Amino acid sequence: MKHTYGYVVLRYVHDVITGEFVNVGLVMHAPETQRLRSKTRTSVGRLKNIFPDLDRTAFLNAMRSVNRALAKVEKHFQTEGLFKGPGDAASFAHLALPLDDSSLQWSPVSTGLTKDFDKTFDNVYGRMITRYDNRTPARRSDEDVWRPVRDKIAERQIAVPFEQKVVVGATDQIAFRHAWKNGAWHAYEALSLDLADADGIKDKARRWRGHLDAVFEGKSDPNLKLNFILGPPSDEKLIPAYENAMAILQHSSSKPSIYGEGQIDQLVSEIEDEIRAHKRSQRD
After folding, report:
1. At 169, which CATH number?
2. Looking at the domain assignment, is residue 125 inside a domain?
3. Tens digit of pLDDT for each residue in 224-258?
């Protein structure tokens, strides 16, 4: 048996004068079966290609705010029954994001019939929101960047007593998963900068630098030596952003040593030399 449903699309209007917009979210409601679902973009996607001057951070912050508000509306709908009276997709959407003159605007209500609400929701979201997104290749994670270091250490049969090290600062703390001690602590952190755009690459480096600066101010271990292994982006056009990210990290108050993937042999050799020196000092 088919049931009626209605939906509204959230539009990002980049220029209110020209009216250019891109669909970035969806709210769907089925009154007969009492279903309500919503979803918005969690990434910039193709917007940066359409609007090169898009403020990526501001847009993503706005989308997170809308997501939180929609989640609250859905929770009330499901658990409290406060909104289960007369209403349509637009009325629920406006509870989360009222009509105003901002760059996020709701479309008029569209309607249809469905046998499977969830399947229809996914189909409409794909058609209206992500249909023209570029399919990007799988990008490397931080663990992917660490793996060749780990494998090279195992290949050379270097017995490194890695353990987690938590560095406590005056106002914050940070845990390094790969650390060992030979009088002073040596910590190693792999960061993948194989991201989709230059802003994302630099933002990741800025977040790490901000965290490091907060922790290394008044840290409990003044002799800790920090090492970063950075994985470059797959897109060669983003190499300047990668190099800028390296510089951002290098100027942190923690004064880390920075290694690119082409320097893994050098890094492992340094670790091997330090392990040998540590063993000699223990024997002596």
Report:
1. 3.40.1350
2. yes
3. 899 999 999 998 999 999 999 999 999 888 889 99
Asked if the structure places residue 136 within a domain, the reply is no
Domain assignment of residue 80, given as a range? 3-130
Q: What is the pTM of this model?
A: 0.54
Domain match, 261 and 153 both:
yes
Please write the tens of the pLDDT for every residue from 48-60.
Answer: 778 888 888 889 8
Task: Provide the domain count of the chain.
Answer: 2
Asked whether 131 and 187 are in contact (CB, 8 A), the reply is no
**What is the spatial distance between Cα 22 and Cα 128, in angstroms, rounded to a whole number?**
9
Q: How many CB atoms lie within 10 A of CB 280?
A: 9
List of residues 6+ apart from 15 with CB closer than 8 A? none
